[in-house]
Amino acid sequence: MEATAATVFIIDDDSSVRKGLVRLLRSAGWNAEAFASAEAFLARPDHEDIGCIVLDLCMPGMSGQQLQDLLQERNIVLPIVFLTGQGDVASSVVAMKKGAVDFLLKPIDSHALLQAISEATLRHAAALEKSHDIASIDARMARLSTREREVMEQVLTGRLNKQIAGVLGIAEKTVKVHRGRVMAKMEVHSVAQLVHECELVGINSDSRGTVQTSAAVR
Description:
single chain, alpha/beta, Rossmann fold, Arc Repressor Mutant, subunit A, 2 domains
């Protein structure tokens, strides 16, 4: 994914700020869309590609912080760069704790803004790539039978085929067959790769050889 193909959504009730930022960002090679309010942005169809939001903190109607909270509730992960003319330190701390990329004071320093947008879009590109990887792993894992899933979880603990056979009460030869099917269905070529992909979706083995599944796994 190329972050240079990103779209920057400018949300500010000041028309002069919107126009100036659109010109700046387009001249720097970004796609840019401007909205006079958070409500207007929310009326837009969901954005599926790389992007970020340049968001005014204080606006009539829904504030920037309220929009940030709503996007988090809806699991919309577009990174946010906040703008403010008030220099509200307390608000900036809250916004950054909630994941904002930066908090810039008006009048905006163009170089600082472009740097923040570059960081935001790269962050979003990485998040989308990870999300796609997780979806792919989930789809492959769904192909596993119940027994194959059990064998896979035992493989993750580092147990040998003979040990797995003892734990599951099946023949070692049967373990080998299921293990081969797991590797084929998961499209991996080594146990290390299998462990890595399982870790991405929250499946880990602890020091006692017990498999733990994160609540985040779908």
